[in-house]
Write a structure and sequence with these properties.
This protein is mostly beta strands and 1119 residues long. The chain folds into 6 domains: 77 residues, Transcription Regulator spoIIAA, CATH 3.30.750; 262 residues, Neuraminidase (6 Propeller); 179 residues, TolB, C-terminal domain (Neuraminidase, 6 Propeller); 187 residues, Methylamine Dehydrogenase, Chain H (7 Propeller), CATH 2.130.10; 89 residues, Pdz3 Domain (Roll), CATH 2.30.42.10; 164 residues, 2-enoyl-CoA Hydratase, Chain A, domain 1, CATH 3.90.226. Helices cover 11% and strands 32% of the residues.
Length: 1119
């Protein structure tokens, strides 16, 4: 492979591979060892190779993916994880080859981990029975049968002692296992559990990451980074000695290891190694893979609606220009062929914009290694033009052509708004620079129709946006609005007389995008028009019907005299050559008094565009006002499109369910483009959208025929581009331009050689994850991409737990829901469905439910499908009846609710009703909704326990801290009833917070603020330690995502207090498996005890009502 590194700034380019005599390194993952063979995962399939190395052959192939192979103790079978038909389950296959046997059916992720020492059962981890992050360890008979949970509350990996009486296991699952030098609360640990009573003994560690336990004879082998790059160690459970076995001079972390007869096979990132415990010798196992790999084959691929990243309508609405899979395509609205304007697989071409004259398409391209501006002929014929955007290189967005098609406007990642004059030297000119980098940063720029002015919004010090106008004649920008409202979407009217925008004066705390106090606020605004010149009357002045003494001819002459720039017309139609646009002039003096409201009412505006003269289009969205709304609107809600016509003074709805960001108007103002329910529709811009338009459409409304749009995909070329793109994202978005001291050029040289050996898209994710882990920061995630197509899992669930009794499945627990809440529907507790705990499940859709496999097999394909159950009180079927239910695809929300309710009852019981319990699953909309619902509902309690274990973060929970710190200020006395404290909705007594290692990000910030503000003590275990922020990155060309923390948080005294450390509890309490097995929650119980102690030490303050004042009124003497 040839690696070309440009030396300008941080620029680089990994080129296509050249001829080489050296085979590229292969990412052979999760190896496992038998006496004769090694099995491993590569390219989403299971392969085997002789123990001494050689040419590997496939063992498991087919549709889907297979991973995590583990040889049985005698080497005759291999358990593995299979992702087939949308489900991830445990399978077993003969080591010599054959048909795999499926062992699990639950729709959660079941992953194979190991075997019992007798080889009869497979060990796996699964989230099926837990309410939050942590999986549990189960065993399932290898010949098929019912899985059984180990008596441990959590577990991710494990290895049994030879007598099966103990297990060395990893109790937690890390969110970021590739984070180099990680030392936060989620550091991996290994515990040795005695299965008879669940007593655990931790393997001693210096807060290192210890993982991958392997119990061989009298020792536990494991991988650890306690002395540098992850390498192999051993632990003697009897004497306690820990020995380093391998000196990892290579530097790459050992990713996994597996013990087998007389050896341990290691995945040393790109190399398989075999360690011999008896001699201490480590040898490399040479492996070659010479086979057809389906995922690397270039192929033609139909563009799917969710692959369209950007789309714009052309000048007269005849075509739509789209970005899909890194290609720019011109798609006919109705007739014609699709044109691929770029024809460049493996190049990212972004943000296409068609010119108003219909001749060109502008877009950004990284064909040279850094993004440049490209102008392409719209018909695809002839040479294009590439314009360098200078140094430092950056990401660029949002191209806007000037109406005369001679200039372009766009902005970059560095908050700079640029203009390029194509008729001049085409050198970018800086228009302005914004103040704050937020996830919602935007300029909302637009041109005047004479191409001499640019209008846009910019953030002020108060975090609100003001409208500005930039004159190309003077090169100066002028602020148009006063900054006391949040302005958006400024647009010039085609007449040149007016400027429109929306503004909100009610945004308030909603401008604090990272603050939880910005949530739940019903922000609205209004649309306004600015009269640009003093001599122009208001377009919304009161109307009056009056007789006009002049003739029609006189009126036409008068009109022309009043506006000499107006074009001549014949029979009401413009000449073939339209008149030039009116010249725009702005009288800045007194401008604030020439702003008037459009008569369309207040709304939550999401967009504003202009069409023909005097026509304004607005997009509105619902305001999230209730807790349920907040939880439902995590994704941007669909919008409603309306058209306001000044001549008619009419605001008319054109379409609902418009996908955010999809609407555009043709340059002539006569057509519009929008996406609705995965259909891209071109329609006249002056009439409501017609319902049910099929592809092709009728009359003037057309639905794009995307089934006729395809692109050539070259996976290896794409993977090289995405490798480069990943580094560009880290370089340009990461908050520290030094990348925490990482030599990015050395990292590129280290990891680029692996590209040539990748066999599947998921292998690229592994490579990128390991590579970016060297930045050593939280929130560095590599996700998604075009993985082998899989349907959505359809195994149905009833929200119940079962046991086998008398040869049938007995229902032992029914999860309760909130059947009025679509997200918490419990199938067996619906009104009219009489199913009770202790009854038997006898048949599903008339078919008996076998007990030689898990019960979920009977519900394969039945999620969200009407299903008839036969249930009854007796195993023999006596008294059985049929009920019809709708199984759900996931029980996770039901199990979480059950856990929360159990905790609430526990706190209530232990405190005698004095202490409230509130669970916060995150610091985003879910946590905000939970706090509003459960904290205020328990006002009247004397103290509160706030449980933020497993909190996944989101925002900075300022509003929660503010509310918890409220103190009584006064008492409101009334004639009847009890006195009311002010504030009324508060709990004034002690507060205790419960934390654990699975709380992070905003879940780090919440206990940090709790501690800094002396709200109360923290109980539990140290949090994750990932207090940075992510958001707003360009997608990779195949839809994958890369994050680079662009916001980092430090304390007001100038110290990095949380990142890679976490928040330590004031009272450390572990989630002890032995106590949990006995029915206790040691962390929660200690929190309640602490709250009760504080309550005794600081009892609630009593308020003494003073005697009513005696004012000694003196009445006048009568008469």
């Amino acid at each position: 492979m040839r690696i070309s590194v440009a030396l300008s700034g941080l620029a680089f380019l990994v080129a296509a591979p050249a001829l080489s005599q050296t085979a590229p390194p292969l990412l052979l993952q999760h190896p496992t060892l038998s006496r004769t063979s090694i099995a491993f995962e590569y390219a989403g399939e299971i392969w085997t190779v002789p123990r001494g190395g050689g040419r590997a052959g496939r063992l498991v192939t087919g549709e889907g993916q297979s991973s995590h192979p583990i040889f049985s103790p005698d080497g005759s079978r291999i358990a593995f994880t299979g992702r087939y038909d949308g489900n991830t389950d445990v399978y077993v296959v003969p080591a010599a080859g054959g048909e795999p046997r499926r062992l699990t059916w639950h729709p959660g992720i079941d992953e194979a981990v190991g075997w019992t020492p007798d080889g009869r059962s497979v060990l796996f981890h699964t989230p099926r029975a837990v309410p939050r992050d942590l999986d549990q360890l189960f065993v399932v008979p290898a010949d098929g049968g019912v899985p059984a949970a180990l008596p441990l509350p959590s577990g991710e990996d494990g290895s049994f002692s030879p007598d099966a009486g103990q297990i060395a296991y990893s109790p937690i699952k890390q969110w970021q296992p590739a984070w180099q030098n990680y030392r936060g609360g989620q550091t991996a640990r290994i515990w040795i559990a005695r299965l008879s009573d669940s007593h655990v003994t931790p393997i001693p560690r210096p807060n290192s990451n210890d993982r991958n336990p392997m119990w061989v004879g009298g020792k536990v082998y494991f991988l650890s980074d306690r002395d540098g790059p992850t390498t192999l160690y051993s632990y003697d459970p009897n004497g306690g000695a820990i020995t380093r076995l391998v000196d990892n001079a290579r530097g790459f972390a050992m990713a996994s290891a597996s013990a087998g007869p007389d050896g341990i096979v290691i995945d040393h990132f790109g190399r398989l190694e075999l360690f011999h415990p008896d001699t201490g010798r480590l040898e490399t196992v040479p492996v070659s893979v010479d086979a057809d790999l389906p995922q690397v084959r270039p192929h033609l691929e139909t563009v799917m609606p969710d692959q369209i990243q950007h789309a714009r309508i052309t000048a007269t609405g005849k075509r739509v220009v789209i970005e899909a899979r890194g290609q720019i395509l011109s798609v006919p609205a109705d007739k014609g062929t699709v044109r691929n304007l770029t024809q460049s697989p493996g190049v990212a071409n972004r943000d296409p914009a068609p010119s108003p004259d219909g001749r060109s398409v502008a877009y950004f391209t990284d064909g040279s290694g850094e993004y440049a501006l490209r102008i392409e002929p719209a018909d695809g014929i002839g040479a294009g033009r590439t314009i360098s955007l200078g140094q430092p290189a950056s990401f660029f967005y949002d191209i806007h052509w000037s109406p005369d098609s001679k200039k372009l406007l766009f902005h970059d990642k560095r908050l700079i708004l640029w203009m390029v004059d194509l008729s001049a030297a085409a050198k970018p000119v800086r228009v302005d620079t914004d103040r704050f980098d937020t996830p919602f940063f935007h300029y909302d720029p637009a041109w005047s129709f004479d191409s001499r002015w640019i209008t846009y919004t910019k953030q002020l010090a108060n975090h609100l946006h003001a409208a500005f106008a930039y004159s190309l004649d003077t090169g100066r920008a002028t602020q148009l609005t006063d900054g006391l409202s949040d302005v958006a979407f400024p647009r010039f009217d085609r007449s040149g007389k007016y400027l429109y925008f929306t503004a909100s004066t009610s945004i308030g705390l909603g401008a604090g995008w990272l603050d939880m106090s910005s949530l739940g606020r019903a922000t609205d605004g209004a649309a306004y028009v600015v009269v640009l010149r003093k001599d122009i009357p208001s377009p919304v002045a009161p109307e009056s019907d009056e007789e006009d003494p002049g003739s029609a001819g006189d009126k036409a002459a008068d009109a022309k005299a009043a506006d000499p720039e107006a074009g001549d017309t014949v029979a009401g139609k413009p000449h073939d050559h339209p008149a030039p646009p009116a010249r725009v002039a702005i009288d800045f003096d007194g401008l604030d008094q020439r702003i008037v409201a459009l008569p369309i009412g207040r709304a939550n505006f999401a967009g504003l565009e202009v069409g023909a003269e005097g026509v304004v289009y607005t997009l509105t969205k619902p305001a999230a006002q209730t807790d349920e709304d907040l939880q439902d609107h995590e994704d941007e809600p669909a919008q409603t499109l309306s058209r306001f016509d000044f001549k008619k003074r009419e605001n008319k709805a054109l379409a609902s369910d418009v996908q955010p960001g999809s609407f555009s108007v043709s340059a002539d103002g006569k057509h519009m483009l929008l996406e609705r329910k995965h259909d891209w529709i071109v329609a006249p811009s002056d009439a409501p959208l017609k319902a049910g338009s099929p592809p092709g459409g009728s009359d003037a409304q057309h639905t794009l025929k995307l089934d006729q749009v395809s692109v050539m995909v070259d996976p290896r070329a794409e993977w090289r581009q995405m490798f480069n793109e990943t580094w560009r994202i880290e370089r340009d978005f990461f908050y520290d331009p030094r990348l925490h001291g990482l030599d990015e050029q050395a990292a590129i040289r280290t990891y680029a050689p692996f590209l040539a050996g990748l066999g599947a898209r998921q292998d690229l994710n592994v490579l990128l994850t390991q590579m970016t882990g060297h930045i050593a920061v939280g929130h560095t995630f590599i996700r998604g991409g075009e993985l082998p197509g899989q349907p959505k899992a359809k195994v149905g669930l009833l929200g119940a737990d079962y046991v086998v009794s008398d040869g049938h499945w007995k229902i032992v627990r029914i999860l309760r829901g909130e059947n009025w809440n679509p997200k918490l529907v419990a199938p067996l507790s619906q009104p009219g469905i009489e199913v009770r705990e202790g009854e038997y499940l006898l048949a599903v859709n008339g078919q008996p439910v076998p007990v030689d496999r898990e019960v979920y097999a009977a519900f394969d394909g039945l999620a969200d499908t009407r299903t008839v159950l036969t249930v009854g009180p007796n195993a023999d079927g006596h008294g059985a009846r049929q009920v019809t239910v709708l199984p759900v695809a996931s029980e996770a929300a039901l199990r979480l609710r059950g856990w929360m309710e159990q905790n609430r009852r526990t706190v209530d019981r232990l405190s005698g009703g004095k202490v409230a319990y509130v669970y916060l699953p995150d610091t985003a909309s879910g946590g905000f909704a939970n706090f509003n619902r459960y904290y205020y509902a328990q006002v009247g309690h004397q103290a509160a326990v706030i449980d933020e274990r497993f909190n996944h973060g989101g925002d900075i929970a300022d509003t929660i801290i503010d509310q918890l710190r409220r103190t009584p200020q006064m008492v409101n006395e009334t004639r009847e009833g009890e006195p009311i404290t002010e504030p009324a909705q508060a709990i004034f007594g002690p507060k205790v917070m419960v934390i654990n290692e699975m709380s992070g990000s905003g879940g780090d910030a919440l206990p940090w603020l709790f501690q800094k503000n002396h709200v109360g003590p923290l109980v539990g275990e140290r949090t994750w330690g990932g207090l940075v922020g992510i958001g707003g990155y360009p997608k990779l060309i195949d839809g994958g995502t890369v994050t680079a923390p662009r916001w980092a948080i430090y304390g007001i005294h100038g110290q990095w207090e949380v990142e890679n450390t976490g928040i330590a509890p004031d009272i450390e309490v572990a989630a002890d498996p032995e106590q949990i097995r006995q029915g206790h929650d040691p962390q929660l119980e200690r929190a309640v005890a602490e709250a009760m102690t504080l309550l005794r030490e600081h009892p609630p303050e009593g308020f003494v009502r003073p005697a009513a004042p005696d004012k000694h009124p003196v009445l006048p003497e009568p008469g």
